[in-house]
Amino acid sequence: MQYESERIEYKSQMIDDIYKEVIAFANTDGGIIYLGIDDKGNLTGIENVDETYTRLTNGIRDAIAPDVTMFVRYVLQDNKVIQIEVGEGSFKPYYLKAKGMKPTGVYVRQGASSVQASPEQIRQMIKESDGDTFEEARCLEQDLTFDAAGTAFKRYGVEFSVEKYRALGITQNDIYTNLALLLSDQCLHTTKIAVFNDESCTEFRDSKEFGGSVFKQFEDSVNYLALCNKTISTIKGVIRTDKQDYPEEAIREALLNALVHRDYSFSGSIIINVNDSKMEFISLGGLLPGLSTEDIRIGVSQPRNKKLAEVFHRLRLIESYGTGIRRIFKLYENCAIQPRIEVTANAFKIVLPNMNASGVAFDSASETNEKSPAAITPQMKAVIDYLTEYGEMTDEDLQELLNIKKTRAYLLARQMNENELIEIVGRGAGKKYKLK
Q: What letter would DSSP give residue 375?
């Protein structure tokens, strides 16, 4: 007499519990279920074989997803026992439709028992079945809504309907993919924005976290960053010129780059840090193999999330691969301080300099050797107020007053000197600044 084992299961009668046994065998190495034998190995038989057989085959077809019937074979023994041969499935994880693709619905074989799979086991099965591409893999969460996505598609004049889900990559065999999760209102990933009082980004001024669909995160983040993008006004004669700290298009492109190209297999958030001198966009996932920062600057692109990029391209939020970074550098082409890209094995950062605070922006007047009118920034005003009261200051005084580093202090002093706001007296350690 055989006993129950990793590959053998006995059931004396037909109960719904049998479906989890089929799932467990299909999710592991396969096995055989004998219906009509008790767990001691004693023959009990089945009273109504035809009725039981019909209920069994219909139940396995209807209660389990994905379709496991191609891996199940039935053998009738002496009109008393139904032998259910279950092969290892090729589209794991299999689960109870009523429970969904989560531990309460997914089972694996452990010894002679069928037990709930852990979230890690479920993810591993998905990875092995669907490959290592995050956006194309089946999503663990299947109760998704797409209100924000529907609004975005409508705004940009593109049809969004259930019939289009498969073509967009939102579904695979009528199961939502991880791309669907990113577009859905239930998206688990977020964008965090923090505004700081200091250059080292340690003293918080304000912070926000935006969740939901990536479309909602994009809109909410753009609107919030617009509040951080101050405008400096300069007057020359009767002409008034307004200049923003950051080009709006540069902010938009940096944010889109973070949303479209980040590695969503990590659970962390996109981080955006803002202070008076710069805006940093940090997304998870370094460069794909074979790419360098110079490749990115000249427009070479290999999208990590190809289908997500295609969705954003279809809505005309991005033009084509690789143009966003090039456009950012083009917007800063007349600046002494350029945007900066930093890459680690697991993160990508692009830094946008504050064009007003750093004094690095040049207008067309610089090309004709005309001086631009001085724009008095809050930092400059603090220096002028200090000099008005104390008469002079050193490099150390300037750094301590504004809580800035040596390089930033040098750039600010040079700008104020060029704009004839202050004069520089002496050199080296004895250098001092005075009002013009």
A: P
Pick the most confident of 152-161, 321-330, 359-368. Answer: 152-161
| DSSP-assigned letters across all residues of 169-215 | TSEETTEEBHHHHHHSTT----EEEEEESSTTS-SEEEEEEE-SSHH
The closest of 228, 188, 229 to 210, measured between CA atoms, is 188
Max Cα separation, the chain?
109
Q: What is this structure's pTM?
A: 0.66
pLDDT tens-digit map of 260-279: 999 998 888 999 999 999 99
Q: Residue 275: CA atoms inside 13 Å, Cβ hemisphere, count?
A: 16
The count of other CB atoms within 10 Å of the CB of residue 55 is 12
Quote the crossing angle between the two packed helices 248-261 and 214-228, to the nearest 10°.
150
**Crossing angle of helices 323-331/248-261, nearest 10°?**
150
d(C-alpha 60, C-alpha 58), whole Å = 6
pLDDT tens-digit readout, 101-151: 999 999 999 999 999 999 999 988 988 887 778 999 999 899 999 999 999
Tokens found for residue 164? 């289009």
Report the distance separating Cα 295 and Cα 196, nearest Å.
32
Angle between helix 406-418 and helix 378-390 axes, rounded to 10 deg: 80
Alpha carbons 422 and 436: distance in angstroms, whole number: 5
Cα 95 to its chain centre, rounded Å, is 28
Distance CA 262, CA 74 (A): 47
Cα-only R_g, the chain = 32
| Whether the bond into 66 is cis, omega within 30 of 0 | yes
Query: Is the previous residue joined to 93 through a cis bond, with omega within 30 degrees of 0?
Result: yes
Closest CA to 97 of 87, 85, 106, 86: 106
DSSP 255-282: HHHHHHHS-TTS---EEEEE-SSEEEEE
Query: Tell me, what amino acid is at 114?
Result: S
Residue 249's closest CA among 322, 310, 326, 192?
326
Half-sphere exposure of 65 (CA within 13 A, CB side): 15
420: helix, strand or coil: coil
Which contiguous run of DSSP H or E holds residue 384?
A: helix 378-390
pLDDT value for 322: 63
Alpha-carbon span 261 to 218, nearest angstrom = 13
